[in-house]
Amino acid sequence: MSSRNNKIISCLCGGIKLKVNGPLRHVSNCHCIQCMKTHGNYSAYTNAKEKDVIFLKRGTLKWFRSSKKAKRGFCKKCGASIFFKFYGNNTISISAGMFSNPTKLKTKMNIFIKGKLDYYKLDKKLPKFNRYS
Predict the structure, then answer these.
(1) What pLDDT does 132 receive?
(2) How far is the CA of 48 from the CAs of 64, 68, 116, 119, 121, in angstroms?
(3) Cβ atoms within 10 A of the Cβ of 72, count?
(4) Could you tell me the CA-to-CA distances from 28 to 46, 52, 62, 116, 127 in Å, in that order?
(5) CATH number of the structural domain spanning residue 100
(6) Is it true that the peptide bond before 102 is cis, omega within 30 degrees of 0?
(7) Which DSSP symbol is given to 128?
(8) Mean per-residue pLDDT for 29-58?
(9) Pairing between strand 27-30 and 107-111?
(10) Which conformational region is residue 79 in: left (phi greater than 0), alpha (psi within -120 to 50 degrees), or beta?
């Protein structure tokens, strides 16, 4: 886990605002087809315990069941992709791009690298996995 990040974060239009009152996991870059289609590129997610996510505004939050195992949360007004959540899990992944500097986060790995497209290169210093680590 990384250090705490108590900053208020929001989507582009401000319809979703929240803060995380607990530690954040370091960032994992996901190259799966779902993240590619959701973000228009690979995704960069941190993670927190769901109980530590405090919503200040969530009127535009919409959930999409992206598979039998998980759902994705986004703003129905501005389209910002914010969350990835496994059903039955007590953690929630948050798009790292929602935070402002200094995030105190570090990218620690690349996952689902078989979905990686050919127009970019992976950092050779980071571990890579065909699935979740």
Answers:
(1) 72
(2) 20, 22, 25, 31, 28
(3) 22
(4) 7, 19, 23, 14, 10
(5) 2.170.150.70
(6) yes
(7) B
(8) 96
(9) parallel
(10) left
Residue 74 counted as domain residue: yes
Tell me, what's the pLDDT at 81? 97
Domain membership flag for residue 111: yes
Domain that holds residue 54: 8-115
Q: Is residue 20 part of a domain?
A: yes
pLDDT for position 93: 97
pLDDT > 80? residue 28: yes
When pLDDT is averaged across residues 23-30 and rounded to a whole number, the result is 96
- Res. 3: pLDDT tops 60: no
> How many structural domains does the chain have?
1
Whether 126 maps to a domain, the answer reads no
